[in-house]
Amino acid sequence: MTSNIYKLNVNGNEVRVECFGFDSAKGCGERHVMIHLTRKSLPAQQQVADIFSAYQMLLATELKGYSPVFRRFFVSDAANQSELLDAAMAREQDFVSTSIVEQPPLDGTKVALWVYLLEGVKPELLNSGLSIVRHGEYDHYWSGTTTLPKGDSREQTVELLDNYAKALSERGLSLENNCVRTWFFVQNVDVNYKGVVDGRNEVFDRHDLTVQTHFITSTGIGGRCAASNELVQLNTYAVSGLQKGQLKFLYAKDFLNSTYEYGVRFERGTSVDYGDRRHVFISGTASIDERGNVVHVGEIDRQVHRMWVNVEALLQEADCTFDDVAQMIVYLRDLADYDCVARLFEERFPAVPKVILLAPVCRPTWLVEMECMAVKKVDNKAFPDF
């Protein structure tokens, strides 16, 4: 596993690239890449052009042989910038599941990009809107921006999840057995998050996703789509071909409480074991204790440190450490906290691909939240390689 930081020159715009690499002699390599612009004063059209130019440059050089299977654009103004991104993507004519969400990069630029890539694969687009990536014994299903134009946040959440469950069912899969990760981006999260929670609970009841069974690792966070009536955006990841015992849920109960205790349903984290590697997905995690209380109210630096303690405990439950983390996404409620948080993350995780965004957490007193993915090399003969 390697992490590299380098700079590209694109039309005179210095572009910062952070790349995590995992290689395996048994299966395909993986790359997580964060692309950041540095010239903040350029108009949106030029910033979009530059980030795509950097992206294409990487695919032709350092990432040659790798195919993007999921990507997310973080933008400062979805209503005006989504059309620019859509036009640029239309020229690519590929099948990458893509999310565009208004969560402004707090470095002051208008757009940043996270890309997940795999070696030697070719994504295909299904009629359901899911993209499929086939490798070895497994099929991986991703979905990017999925929204609906009508209804309140509860109604949109129910229909989005029902449509997703139907798309999985058409492939012989299910929400309860195959979905590994979800993201809910919620416009005006302080008002609309309760509807998302209620809608998710309603669907989960119908799919036997309960306290007695399990939930799904998830992030529910503030984030706007291009259209003002699209209150919820859903992104998803599912895997087919998993055997019993490959999927494990992470709790870290000495540090965090179970989410159902305060009325929501998601897992704190999930690990997926393959023959040659372990994937770990950590949900959006904040400064919370084992009783569900917000810790260090109003103190951003102390909330960051408690958040790290919680994430580290979840990683340790999967026999991983921060050294195995491939990418981090950090969400802040107050842009005034950016300098402090950026300094803390740069001091502790200088080489990890990461992005810090303006995106309110679901509780107003949580000033910061983070999610991450990790990859660890293992030799597990019980399961096929990735």
Task: Describe this protein's structure.
The chain is α+β, with helices and mostly antiparallel strands and 386 residues long. The protein has 3 domains: 1-123, RutC-like (60s Ribosomal Protein L30, Chain: A), CATH 3.30.1330.40; 126-242, 60s Ribosomal Protein L30, Chain: A (2-Layer Sandwich); 244-258 and 268-386, RutC-like (60s Ribosomal Protein L30, Chain: A, 2-Layer Sandwich). Helices cover 26% and strands 34% of the residues. It has 7 helices and 18 strands. The chain has helices at residues 44-60, 78-92, 153-169, 175-178, 189-206, 300-317, 338-348, and strands spanning 2-10, 13-22, 30-37, 66-75, 97-102, 111-119, 124-125, 131-135, 138-146, 179-186, 217-222, 232-240, 247-250, 269-273, 277-285, 325-332, 354-358, 368-377. It has a 6-stranded mixed beta sheet with strand order 1-2-3-6-4-5. Helix 3 (153-169) runs parallel beside helix 5 (189-206). The longest helix has 18 residues, at 189-206. The radius of gyration is 19 Å and the shape is globular. The protein starts with a strand and ends in a 9-residue tail after the last strand. 51% of the residues are buried. The mean pLDDT is 95.
Tell me the Rg in angstroms. Answer: 19 Å
Main β-sheet, in a few words? 6 strands, mixed
Q: What's the overall geometry?
A: globular
* H/E element sequence: EEEHEHEEEEEHHEHEEEEEHEHEE
Q: β content, as a range? A: 25-35%
- Strand elements, count: 18
Termini separation: 16 Å
Q: What's the CATH H-level homologous superfamily of the largest domain?
A: RutC-like
CATH class of the largest domain: Alpha Beta
Q: Do you know the CATH topology of the largest domain? A: 60s Ribosomal Protein L30, Chain: A
Query: How much helicity do the residues have?
Result: 25-40%
**How are the strands ordered across the major sheet?**
1-2-3-6-4-5
- Pick out the low-confidence regions: none
